[in-house]
């Protein structure tokens, strides 16, 4: 990269892509430009392009992959399409930022990481949380030693959906379920804190009638008798927060865990300080998800990495992404939630 604006292609015209494009267009035009969008229906792509003033619209992802005026692809398709879409873009020579989970299982994840490495292309799982200032403050606070030795993490993402559960959450055919949709957030929070692969895992919960998990509870064991207790559910309304407990105090990341603005530090039983980071301003107020302007942090991280010639972000490295895939796959196995893609990759060994 030579310091010019990063040229983006948008793979899908859904809600998450809507929010990401608004975030991109709220950043300086000298740094980010949205060049094209593709959807499975040309009409959807054209409507999206018109709404966001995007120059080109395509009715297939293959056409988008061939656009020579794109540096990096943002992939916001449904979970079950992540692997094929990201693989297509990497093989076309594009850098990739792909929504979480990067892939559905360990086999897909390893394959995608290997392709990116072989082609010397940037690939990042879009765990936007990692780029938020609160997450950086959590790490700084832990590293400072003020809360002592970290021994325990509790984290959750819960939202009562009931009969209002969207198809992307409930349908097995498109890899729905709490683990893959929202469970990744408490898992990655624990991994951020402990910074190592867990040595044990116990998962429990239940599957709904469609065969995906409606609620999952995961206990991860780490070296030195340290623990993380995590849960994700579509059927309770909990705090959706993260707590890091040390021998001298604790950190509480206030809701929403996945895109927070505040954390509170408690030392010696007292509330020491509240840290608040106001979200960046947005050019539009019709974004679809909470705190969506925070996607600007993630987009900025991608550009900074590419300006430095990096092929992965230190905020969410290939190793970190693979560890997340391993934890989620184990959770699904322990819950009895299998996908056709699992059998495919098991048979390919």
Describe this structure in words.
This protein is α/β, with parallel strands linked by helices. It has an eight-stranded mixed β-sheet with strand order 8-9-10-7-11-12-13-14, covered by helices on one side. Strands 3-2-1-4-5-6 form a six-stranded parallel β-sheet, with helices on both faces. The chain has eleven helices and 14 strands. Strand 11 and strand 12 form a beta hairpin.
What would a concise description of this structure say?
With 349 residues, this protein is of the alpha/beta class. The protein is 36% helix and 25% strand.
What topology, given as strand order, has the largest sheet? Answer: 8-9-10-7-11-12-13-14
Structural class, judged by helices and strands? alpha/beta
Which descriptor suits the 3D outline? globular
How far is the N terminus from the C terminus? 37 Å
Tell me the series of helices and strands, N- to C-terminal: EHEHEHEHEHEHEHHEEEEEEEHHH
User: What's the oligomerization state?
Assistant: single chain
Mean pLDDT: 96
Q: In what range is the share of β-strand residues?
A: 15-25%
Largest sheet: 8 strands, mixed
Q: Helicity range of the residues? A: 25-40%
Rg measurement, Å: 20 Å
Identify low-pLDDT runs.
Answer: none
- The total beta strand count reads 14
Total number of helices: 11
Explain the layout of strands and helices:
Layout: E1 6-11, H1 15-26, E2 32-38, H2 42-52, E3 56-58, H3 61-65, E4 72-75, H4 82-91, E5 95-99, H5 106-119, E6 123-126, H6 133-144, E7 150-158, H7 167-170, H8 178-194, E8 200-207, E9 213-222, E10 226-233, E11 242-246, E12 249-253, E13 262-267, E14 270-276, H9 295-307, H10 318-335, H11 340-347
Parallel strand pairs: 1-2, 1-4, 2-3, 4-5, 5-6, 7-10
Antiparallel strand pairs: 7-11, 8-9, 9-10, 11-12, 12-13, 13-14
Helix pairs in contact: 4-5, 5-10, 8-10
